[in-house]
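A quick aside before the break. I want you to see a complete sequence-to-structure record at least once, exactly as it would be stored in a machine-readable document. Don't worry about memorizing anything.
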Amino acid sequence: MSERHAILGAGGIGGLMGAMLAAGGDTVTMVVRPATVDRYPLIITLRRPDGSVISGPARTVGSLPAGEVVDVLWVTTKALQLDEALRSVSASRPRCVVPLLNGLDHIAKLESVFGADVVIPGTIAIEAERLAPGVIRQGGPRGMLRLAERGRPLLAKTATLLEPYGFGVEFIADEHTLMWSKLLFLAPFALTTTASGEPLGYIRDHPEWSARMKAAVEEVAAVGRAEGATLDPAYAEGVVNIAPAGTSSSMARDVAAGNEPELDAIAGAVVRAAERHSIPVPALRDLMQRVRERIAR
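That is the input. The structure line, written in tokens, reads:
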């Protein structure tokens, strides 16, 4: 039986999820800014690294009507856009809400709108870019979606639907570890690539920048452990070592394009948690300042 998905945000991640779900036969509604609805085609298309293309039908709307029921509401906006975007879906009735934003603070915000039992924390690891409305380019050949274990009854079918497209899905019981495991890599990676203006290969090969990244990983691990997560810095270091040399971060791309980056959502969330536990994080603070200086240029 087809399930109903609404996707708040039609950028790279939202478009990627929409294309896979629509191609798999589920019903997909993309929720975008009202002024942009007419720009979107009736078909959403995903171009994959191997040259293949998957696509499926998707309805595009400016908001979900009050009381509209969907099986899953995927929240894929950037943290900076969340407050405004939520107004277009807050009156709907999703059976579950899965946020795929960077950072931590969005979880509590969504719970205040939809209820703690409805919000299923999740993270996604994939590079995706919107080329045009309804047209998405996938970067790496595989992706990984990690979801809180309590969402399995509602999301197991979706996990099965994504498998043919090379997308892995894991259900994780420890929600602190789920969320902090992504930050363990993301915060140091985003900060160093943005502060330096260079891709990951440069960071790996440059002793000074490599040391900054390693110190930042250690600090995030210490803060995450204090928050109750089980973290191993070797995990982040392993990701760094195997990622393609040209890999960069969305934060670095935003700064290069003159757009406001998710500095507060990604790094600020870690620093605020560090302050709650009186944990010094000099490497993170130094990198954040370097990013601010780069923004100001």
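Two observations worth writing down. The longest strand covers residues 69-75. The chain has two domains: 4-173, 176-296. We'll return to this after the break.
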